[in-house]
Amino acid sequence: MRRVRLCATIVAVAISFMTGVAAATGAEPSAAMQQFLQGSDGDAGAHRQSDPHASLSADKMAEVALQHLDEGRAQLAFETLNAAVGRYPDNTMLLSIRASLFLQNRQTSLALADLNRALAINPHDPVMLTNRAQALRQFDRRDEAMRDLDQAILLDPDFVAAHFNRGSLHFEAARFDSALADFNRCVELEPAAAAGYFNRASTLEALGKREQAISDLEHFLTLSPEAGWAEVARNMLRQWDSGQS
Question: Under a CB-based contact definition with an 8 Å cutoff, are residues 153 and 140 in contact?
């Protein structure tokens, strides 16, 4: 079973955790999520009435929900997870997956409720701690978020998402040396991942190390990042090349 991990970074214009280094957008919940929250039947009424998953284990129901997501059936994924949590209310995997989907759809209160419930059962899961930190951060509960991230990294020192998120919090608090340590760790753990270089570049620039920052941004662009982020990086390089801060 795959683990749903919500990663984060810096540059205040994107999805995820990223601030000039990227904060999450305030996008509206998807249509599927709105139907799910409202209890709308949508096109899945017959599917729900027949309940083909009645005999499935928690693991199998999670697999079915994730398959629905992979194949673009978000409404059925939400319904499957809701039914699964109703049947297995203390299953932390199901709660964690549903919380991840709530986070992705900006339903932060619902995500936090699921994560609090799951972590009360298993307080030593670094993925759930990292996801809860993201939820807490969206409520500006940054000290609590930092505690969760510190604990996640203590439990799994190689968990890149936790280092990303903690680096973002350090950056926002102008603790640039601490942010740099986290982003260095991200690059060390996943040297082929673009985001770590972008975040490290932003942090190096904040520390007055522009030449190193330029090197990181140039490397970021060689890793074929998403087009929007590539344009952000090019704009930053143009500003830096012209001597602007």
Answer: no
